[in-house]
Automatic annotation (TrEMBL):
GO biological process terms on file: L-valine transmembrane transport
Transmembrane region(s): 20-40, 46-65, 72-91, 135-155, 167-185, 191-224
GO cellular component: plasma membrane
Protein name (database record): Inner membrane protein YgaZ
Length: 236
């Protein structure tokens, strides 16, 4: 009976996560195109998506690689962009922490914005779910996205390899970042964080190896956190 119930939660998660394919497909395709424009071959591009599996971090690393930034700085910048995943993991631990180690390892790899958003809402809505049911739902929510993200990356890489160099699509990468950031501006804290990060990034543009991005990111996170604290104090 428990197995049947877990399967039903898997398919519920699958249905809840399916709308996100409309985000995964275009962004995966764009990444494939930009990666080949940056000099990566098709195998390297697919391996990038399959191993990192984090859109914003992938685009960040790609931009820095195009600027010939040292590898250590590229890794640090991508890690900084993905720090939110550590907060996602901490939030999911009370619900999934009792699962077997191998399941938690897969869940860690598959923890992205979409799987977290779907899962945390479901777990809080049905607090009596068992750990196997929660894990089934979590995996279900990310199942529609994972293969399509990698497939879209492949299609983008094939397309990008056929685009003449004279087209110079470099300008499209900053535009893609703007498109990714726009929907994230949900609260005043998000807006404050973005504005501070932009201002600091402009002020530190001369810092070597694009380290100004790390400085701007840290400043933005601090400002956003302080703005959120101020908003909470006003409510009390």
């Amino acid at each position: 009976m428990a197995d049947t119930t877990s399967k039903s939660y898997f398919w519920k998660g699958f249905r809840d996560g399916s709308p996100f394919i409309f985000v995964a497909i275009p962004f995966g395709t764009l990444f494939g195109v930009f990666a080949t424009e940056a000099g990566l071959d098709i195998v390297q591009t697919i391996a990038f998506s399959a191993t990192v599996f984090a859109g914003a971090a992938q685009f960040t690393a790609l931009q820095l690689l195009q600027d010939n930034t040292p590898t250590a700085i590229v890794l640090a910048s991508a890690l900084a962009v993905n720090l939110r995943v550590a907060m996602y993991s901490a939030s999911l631990t009370p619900f999934l922490g009792a699962a077997p180690m191998w399941q938690r390892a897969f869940a860690a790899y598959l923890t992205v914005d979409q799987s977290y958003a779907c899962s945390i809402m479901q777990f809080e809505k049905e607090p009596k779910m068992t750990v196997p049911q929660r894990m089934a739902y979590f995996f279900g929510s990310v199942t529609p996205i994972t293969p399509l993200w990698i497939l879209a990356t492949y299609l983008g890489a094939v397309l990008g390899a056929q685009i003449p160099e004279s087209w110079a699509l470099d300008f499209a990468l900053p535009i893609t970042f703007l498109a990714m950031i726009g929907p994230m501006m949900r609260t005043m804290a998000h807006v404050v964080a973005a504005l501070v990060a932009i201002i600091v990034a402009l002020l530190t543009v001369a810092v070597p190896f694009n380290l100004g991005l790390l400085i701007a990111g840290a400043a933005g996170m601090i400002a956003g956190a302080q703005a959120e604290l101020m908003m909470e104090r006003r409510k009390t």
